[in-house]
């Protein structure tokens, strides 16, 4: 079996039956994020990105470069929960929120600038799918993903 | 589980299954899995198929949400979007295989330990 190096630019997109405002709130406030984002309490403001686990430890080191509610959010990404990833270069995460004419919203997450962060690239490849499908389930049903 | 496509028509799992039911389209997804963010010209060079044929297949993949086109400068790059496959996995694979596979894995471990 050949080993595939995880991609330096990764794109994840998902349609969610919710408004852009609901999605924006769900990705920037801890009351929502702890229910689908690996239990982390996330608070995103124009000046800061704070990601804490239930014990109050910082999970991600990030700075916010674009903050345009409810359409666009850009921040850096350095995972602190894993020493190997923490030693890598910071990468970048872009959230694009596009309302559709049918009342659904297309959410696209682009995680790029991962050239200097192969461990992170490998780790987030499965991570974003888990996070986004959990977010969709939470917003559409009011319940976190089972199991 | 439903999924809504970019061109606003209602899409359900059928569209993803249909997109995956063609060997050329699966081949295109495999090429993108190996290296993501490719142009039509690059993808076309690896297939014995006309440019128009590749475009048609890419369009089906885009409509099913499996490929996301993004502009970068003057180029249109195609990215693999694994989320619809994940949703199908959650809905159709996990549900039916989890317990049975776990039971077989336990059995294998027990037999091998006692051997």
Please describe what this structure looks like.
- The complex is a heterodimer of chains A (147) and B (115).
- With 147 residues, chain A is α+β, with helices and mostly antiparallel strands.
- Chain A has a single domain, classed as Alpha-D-Glucose-1,6-Bisphosphate, Chain A, domain 4 (2-Layer Sandwich).
- In chain A, 28% of the residues lie in helices and 34% in strands.
- Chain A is built from four helices and eight strands; from the N terminus they run E-H-H-E-E-E-E-E-H-E-E-H.
- In chain A, strands 1, 2, 3, 4, 5, 6, 7 and 8 form an eight-stranded antiparallel sheet that branches.
- In chain A, 37% of the residues are buried.
- Chain B is of the alpha+beta class and 115 residues long.
- Chain B has a domain at 2-81: Winged helix-like DNA-binding domain superfamily/Winged helix DNA-binding domain (Arc Repressor Mutant, subunit A, Orthogonal Bundle), CATH 1.10.10.
- Helix content of chain B is 62%, strand content 16%.
- Chain B has five helices and four strands; from the N terminus they run ββααααββα.
- Chain B has helices at residues 13-20, 23-34, 40-45, 51-63, 83-114, and strands at 2-4, 10-12, 67-72, 75-80.
- In chain B, the strands form two sheets. Chain B has a two-stranded antiparallel ribbon with strand order 1-2. In chain B, strands 3-4 form a two-stranded antiparallel sheet.
- In chain B, helix 1 runs antiparallel to helix 4 (51-63).
- At the A-B interface, strand 1, strand 8 and helix 4 of A face helix 5 of B.
> Low-confidence parts of chain A, pLDDT < 50 over ≥5 residues?
none
Given as residue ranges, the uncertain stretches of chain B (5+ residues, pLDDT < 50) are 1-10
Q: Could you state the oligomeric state of the chains shown? A: heterodimer
Largest interface: A-B, 24 and 22 residues
| CATH architectural group of the domain at 2-81 in chain B | Orthogonal Bundle
């Amino acid at each position: 079996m050949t080993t595939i190096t995880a991609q330096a630019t990764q794109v994840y997109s998902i349609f969610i039956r919710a408004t852009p405002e609901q999605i924006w709130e769900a990705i920037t406030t801890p009351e929502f994020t702890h229910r689908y984002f690996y239990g982390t309490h996330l608070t995103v403001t124009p000046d800061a990105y704070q990601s804490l686990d239930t014990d109050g430890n910082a999970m991600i080191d990030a700075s916010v470069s674009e903050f345009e509610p409810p359409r666009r959010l850009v921040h850096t990404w350095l995972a602190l929960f894993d020493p190997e990833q923490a030693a890598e270069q910071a990468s970048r995460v872009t959230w694009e929120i596009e309302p559709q004419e049918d009342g659904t919203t297309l959410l696209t997450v682009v995680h790029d600038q991962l050239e200097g962060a192969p461990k992170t690239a490998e780790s987030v490849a499965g991570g974003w799918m888990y996070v986004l499908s959990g977010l969709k389930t939470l917003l559409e049903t009011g319940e976190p993903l089972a199991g | 589980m439903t999924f809504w496509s970019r061109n606003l028509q209602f899409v359900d799992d059928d569209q993803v299954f249909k997109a995956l039911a063609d060997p050329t389209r699966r081949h295109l997804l495999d090429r993108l899995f190996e290296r993501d963010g490719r142009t039509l010209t690059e993808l076309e060079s690896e297939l014995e198929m006309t440019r128009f044929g590749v475009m048609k297949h890419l369009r089906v993949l885009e409509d099913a949400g499996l490929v996301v086109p993004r502009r970068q400068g003057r180029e249109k790059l195609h990215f693999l979007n694994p989320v619809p496959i994940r949703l199908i996995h959650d809905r159709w694979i996990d549900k039916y295989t989890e317990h049975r596979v776990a039971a077989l894995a336990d059995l294998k471990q027990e037999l091998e330990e006692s051997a």
